[in-house]
Model the fold of this input.
Amino acid sequence: MPAFEAFESEERYWATALHEVVHWTGAETRLAREFGPKGSEAYAFEELVAEMGAAFLCARLGVPTIDRHAGAYLQHWMQAGRQDKRAFAKAASLAQKAVDYVLELAGR
Done:
């Protein structure tokens, strides 16, 4: 993560940090999600999971959401959706598991 001062706003910092935290939960020793190289189907799907999870965490923690942040991942989401019509439902389920994992670790 870049330094806090590198972000346009506190909200953008937290949206980005929470997105990265959701990626962190996907490690094999945590929730074991599939990662892939940039541009791959697995990469696009993981970006969808991370962005959904970040949105869920922002809502839970009272961080205002930023529409432009989600827009940066729209291309990946569209790719995932073309490959699997259930991608959004699957991603939402995995994102919720990531959120639950993070909140359990935080004692919430």
